[in-house]
Specification:
single chain; Rossmann fold; four-stranded parallel sheet; 8 helices
Length: about 210
């Protein structure tokens, strides 16, 4: 039997779940920035975050929330979180929201959480590149020109044929979230499904030029 909203319209379960997950993701990013504001993550703050994730199962559909959840689950497996584990949690949250670089540069930095580790070898000939974010090296067109002159190609969107997604040092005002956007979400999804897309930071790409 179909369920109906207060206006008599049938619920779109898939749409509502996605909307809740998106809302929860925004809340998590806000929590992460708040917890990092003083430069440390206390035991109480880690516990608060652990309990928050447990209450927001829909949000686990997103790679960022799932990554934080898995790390918290490992740290709280024995029921407590020690100083070393709290330091590791801080690194994860910093990576998620570009925390340390944002503070140094006084600008919104891109996430480093989904980067391939260790960074892959950069290849050029026959590889398809997609760029996202703002780049310290130059404009996006400048970056694309360097790829083309080395035998590669560039697309504006992430697809299954994407070889590399290069994330700029700084966040873009066009991103749906301050630290990342849809291209990063899509690349992570493709990678998790077995596609060969590699996700690299601007500095790793630039060092290979």
């Amino acid at each position: 039997m179909a369920e109906f909203d207060p206006h008599g319209q049938p619920f779109n379960v898939k749409f509502n779940r996605a909307r809740r997950a998106e809302r929860d993701l925004c809340e998590l990013l806000g929590l992460a920035r708040g917890l990092l504001a003083d430069g440390v993550v206390t035991s109480d703050e880690a516990t608060l975050l652990h309990e928050w994730v447990a209450r927001h199962e829909d949000a686990l559909d997103h790679w960022a929330v799932r990554t934080v959840h898995n790390r918290l689950a490992a740290h709280f497996e024995d029921g407590i979180i020690d100083e070393e584990e709290r330091a590791d949690l801080k690194v994860i949250l910093d990576s998620l929201v570009g925390g340390e670089l944002s503070a140094v540069c006084d600008a919104d930095a891109a996430t480093t959480l989904p980067l391939d580790q260790p960074p892959p070898t950069i290849e050029w000939t026959g590889q398809v590149y997609v760029f996202t974010g703002k780049f310290a090296w130059g404009t996006r067109r400048d970056c694309e020109r360097e790829v083309v002159t080395r035998g590669g190609a560039c697309d504006s969107n992430v697809t299954k044929r994407t070889g590399y997604l290069v994330i700029g040092t700084f966040g873009s005002r066009d991103w749906v979230h301050t630290a990342f956007g849809r291209k990063i979400d899509k690349a992570v999804s493709y990678r998790q499904s077995g596609a060969s897309v590699r996700i690299v930071a601007e500095d790793h790409w630039a060092n290979a030029l």
